[in-house]
Write a structure and sequence with these properties.
Strand order of the largest sheet: 5-4-3-7-6
Organism: Sphingomonas parva
Family: Belongs to the GreA/GreB family. GreB subfamily.
Keywords: DNA-binding, Elongation factor, Protein biosynthesis, Transcription, Transcription regulation
Largest sheet: 5 strands, mixed
Strand content: 15-25%
Helix content: 25-40%
GO molecular function, one term: translation elongation factor activity
Distance between the termini: 40 Å
CATH superfamily of the largest domain: Transcription elongation factor, GreA/GreB, C-terminal domain
Protein name: Transcription elongation factor GreB
CATH class of the largest domain: Alpha Beta
Radius of gyration: 22 Å
Number of strands: 7
Length: about 160
């Protein structure tokens, strides 16, 4: 089975890249230096700096590998370049109203840049799948852990294209 695309916004990709560069170019070399120093202090079996350093190095290497793979497989999509701004697609900021008249504003982003508390939901989430392709005034039904809800799309916005 083929993996689904790893869509990501330019800002999301930039954040992954910054984290990768920080880990690879700054934190990892400092940690390797600490481990080398600790290894030179003799008995490694009870050397906390050495043991902790090796454990932390494995965590950093694992994260670097994961970030590298995600960036390699990423497809950067600039929401500002969306030609059809009347419909909900990746990168759209959508104002939704449920049947209880509760308003919710969500932005459809890549899986690596979600932040539900800030309204940034994965484009593959149940709500995003339900509203993708919808226009203002459309009502969509979505099944959530709390039960089935009807959501009306009341506004759709995309970032403006920045020249330069």
């Amino acid at each position: 089975m083929a993996e689904r695309p790893n869509y990501i916004t330019p800002d999301g990709y930039r954040r992954l890249r910054v984290e990768y560069e920080t880990l690879f170019g700054d934190e990892r070399p400092k940690l390797v230096e600490t481990i080398s120093w600790a290894a030179g202090n003799g008995d490694r079996s009870e050397n906390g700096d050495y043991i902790y350093g090796r454990k932390k190095l494995r965590e950093i290497d694992r994260r670097i590998g994961w970030l590298s793979k995600r960036m390699k497989n990423a497809t950067v999509v600039d929401p500002a370049a969306q030609p059809d701004r009347a419909r909900v697609f990746f990168g759209a900021t959508v104002t939704l109203v449920d049947e209880d008249d509760k308003e919710r504003i969500v932005t459809l982003v890549g899986e690596d840049e979600t932040d539900p508390a800030a309204g940034r939901i994965a484009w593959t989430s149940p709500i995003a799948r339900a509203i993708r392709g919808a226009g203002v005034g459309d009502v969509r039904r979505v099944t959530l852990p709390s039960g089935e809800r009807e959501l009306e799309i009341v506004a759709i916005a995309y970032p403006e294209k920045v020249d330069g």
